[in-house]
Design a protein that fits this description.
The structure is a single chain. The chain has 337 residues and is mainly α. It has a domain of 201 residues. 71% of the residues lie in helices and 0% in strands. It is built from 15 helices and no strands. α2 runs antiparallel to α3. 29% of the residues are buried.
Length: 337
């Protein structure tokens, strides 16, 4: 005969099943509580709207800055930094309102003895980015040279007249604000929103496509990066892993562009001379072959990583795995002992 405590414990288990798990057969779906605190459209709407509205807002602030200060800076990093920071603050405020436990969301700190395989994925991801970007720009330069020139100008980060203050802001925006903010946005929020009504694999794929759409200048590389970042987060159960991978990726990307300003000896190795459109148009078959080899080699490593870390219907997202562990009877008995 069951006592009252056992019955209450079973009712509590029914109410707290994970968001990506099927509810018990005898659960009353009509009266059930929301599956998870992420099960709403508000988070996704806020992120997309702030990102979209952040573009004209960034242009306006850039125009004001160029009106007051010397002109000539495209302001792409200014727009990215301000938009990402504003979105991240809004998300954290919303999570606090919904009583989301950030400790469960972020997970444990990085353990290099167990997480090194995830962190090393930055190498094949960068190889893919180099191969894909080189091929894409080489082909586009043949048919749309003005488009390539506009991209190179708009995504320049060193062409600003703000001195060391601008350099500090650029470094913070690219290497700190963007990695932390975008991982909270995509892996820490939208992934859970998608997984609340999709198969976990479908959620990761949909999230990766969305992430790549926000980074069209390197779509395929961003697609691979987003999938690896989500996989590393799920398997390591630590949001700090994709944040670290993202920070390393952006640091490598900005290292060359900032090398000219941080080169006191003016070494020719770090003159940061950007290729012209004419130089890109002169790509040879040998160059195309090398870029294809890089793209295929990096893609094979990423494919092996994905195959070694499959995402199935039974895959639990880190937040709900931590929540289930905290609510398990063994943990409760330890806490009350």
């Amino acid at each position: 005969m069951r006592n009252k405590g056992d019955i209450m414990h079973e009712e509590h288990q029914i109410e707290q099943f994970p968001a990506n798990a099927n509810p018990p057969e005898n659960a009353d779906n009509a009266e059930a509580e929301p599956l998870s605190p992420f099960h709403n459209y508000l988070a996704t709407i806020i992120i997309i709207c702030v990102q979209v509205l952040g573009l004209p807002l960034g242009y306006l602030l850039t125009w004001l800055a160029n009106t007051i200060m010397p002109s000539g800076y495209s302001g792409s990093v200014l727009r990215i930094g301000l938009g990402t920071a504003a979105t991240t603050i809004g998300i954290l405020f919303m999570m606090r309102r919904k009583a989301i436990n950030l400790r469960y969301l972020f997970g444990t700190w990085i353990d290099f003895t167990t997480h090194w395989k995830h962190l090393l994925m930055i190498i094949p991801l960068w190889i893919i980015a180099i191969g894909y970007t080189g091929l894409t720009f080489g082909i586009l330069a043949q048919f749309a040279p003005q488009f390539v020139q506009d991209i190179m100008r708009n995504f320049s980060v060193t062409d600003h007249p703000y001195g060391w203050v601008g350099d500090v802001y650029i470094t913070m925006a690219i290497c700190l604000i963007a990695p932390v903010g975008e991982e909270i946005m995509f892996r820490g929020t939208i992934l859970y929103r998608f997984a609340s009504y999709k198969h976990p694999y479908q959620a990761v794929v949909s999230l990766s496509i969305l992430f790549a759409c926000f980074h069209p200048q390197n779509f395929f590389g961003s697609l691979a990066f987003a999938y690896v970042a989500a996989t590393s987060y799920i398997y390591s159960r630590s949001l700090w892993i994709p944040i670290c991978i993202h920070a390393m990726n952006n640091s490598l990307a900005s290292l060359g562009t900032l090398a000219e300003r941080l080169n006191p000896f003016q070494s020719p190795m770090f003159t940061n001379e950007k290729p012209t459109v004419e130089e890109i148009q002169s790509i040879t078959l040998q160059d195309i072959g090398i870029l294809l080899v890089l793209l295929i080699a990096g893609g094979l490593v990423v494919w092996r990583y994905i195959k070694a870390h499959p995402i199935t219907a039974d895959t639990k997202l880190p937040y709900f795995a931590a929540l289930e562990k905290a609510q398990s009877p063994s943990q409760s008995s330890i806490a009350t002992a």
